[in-house]
Amino acid sequence: MASGFRFSKRSEHALAGVHDDLVRVARRALELTEVDFVVTEGRRTEARQRSLVAAGASRTMRSRHLTGHALDVAAWVDGGVRWDWPLYPRIAAAFKAAAAELGVAIRWGGDWPRFRDGPHFELDRRSYP
């Protein structure tokens, strides 16, 4: 069943430069999700990544965002962004279902044992070096 959610112009802009397979997964996830979401960031410049590392918002200069192999989302509830953790596994379930359906290997930052990153989705390095 389709959710009826649509990406905003801001989300569409954030998808520019993101690998086509991850864009397909995000679009399908938006159709499957119970929790609406926006794409907050896709491909990053090295300068942007450096500033995020300096601020402690990222821990690596080897981010998949630098190559367009990652994107970040935010839950969109009642007309605004929400960061409540319980929303993100629900969004992740839609991403994982979409990826399985499309045959695209992804990783969710919320599954990482350290520095869990609920808004982060990336193409798996084993399939997308």
What does this structure look like?
With 129 residues, this protein is α+β, with helices and mostly antiparallel strands. It has a single domain, classed as 2-Layer Sandwich (Muramoyl-pentapeptide Carboxypeptidase, domain 2), CATH 3.30.1380.10. 35% of the residues lie in helices and 18% in strands.
Strand fraction equals 15-25%
Task: Name the helix and strand elements from N-terminus to C-terminus, one letter apiece.
Answer: HHEHEEHEE
Question: Which whole number gives the mean pLDDT?
Answer: 95
* Oligomerization: single chain
Quick tags:
129 residues, alpha+beta, Muramoyl-pentapeptide Carboxypeptidase, domain 2, five-stranded antiparallel beta sheet, 4 helices, globular
Blueprint (SSEs and pairs):
Elements: H1 9-14, H2 20-32, E1 37-41, H3 46-55, E2 70-77, E3 80-82, H4 87-102, E4 106-108, E5 120-123
Antiparallel strand pairs: 1-2, 2-3, 2-5, 4-5
Helix pairs in contact: 2-4
Brief summary of the model shown:
The protein is of the alpha+beta class and 129 residues long.
